Amino acid sequence: MKSLKIWGLSVPLLGFLHWFSFLLIYFVALIITVFITPFLPLFATKEGKLPKWLSWFDTPDNNLDGDSGWKEKHSLWVKVLPDWAETYVARVFWLYRNPLYGFSITVLGAPKDKYRQPVLEGKGFDVKGTYKSHYWMVYFMRDDHVKKRRFKVYIGWKLKAEGFDKYQFAFLINPFQTP
Q: φ and ψ at 138, to 5 degrees?
């Protein structure tokens, strides 16, 4: 079976081509998402979730107000706004932070098998792995304490993630993330 090396991981060629074809679909959907995201919070339920027909844009593990870390880090700057605007702006920013979250799980996600587990190597912020000799992931993060920035790479499928029926499709390369 042919393979190629990505960040030191031997990735099956068909697995890479599968991921790359999904990446092209993801980019097209992402362009659409950029334009419709400001309207999505208008459809939020009382619980702060999007209706089922907008689930591709929702974050199934959190409501549109974000997780506790997001709320803590981003709540102060919106306090100058009226309550309705504070909620709206925070939700728009949360959706921009997590674009197509539901789509990357339900449509682009890798199916899980309860009898087979991913083979992961490494620990902490440097983990690589494969699953069923087809799906793969590279997760890498390093802090630059001088510039107070973080370089983060997460590509393939999130094979170390739990809580969903599928392994989430991943594409993130960010050399400017703040810790």
A: -130, 120
Alpha carbons 159 and 94: distance in angstroms, whole number:
23
Predicted confidence (pLDDT) per residue in 121-134, tens digit: 988 888 999 999 89
What SS3 class is residue 83?
helix
Mean pLDDT, the chain, rounded, equals 89
| Nearest to 128, CA basis, from 112, 140, 116 | 140
Strands (E), the chain: 3-6, 9-12, 110-111, 119-123, 126-131, 135-144, 149-157, 166-167, 169-177
Rounded CA separation 95/74 (Å): 13
Specify the 3-state DSSP secondary structure of 108: coil
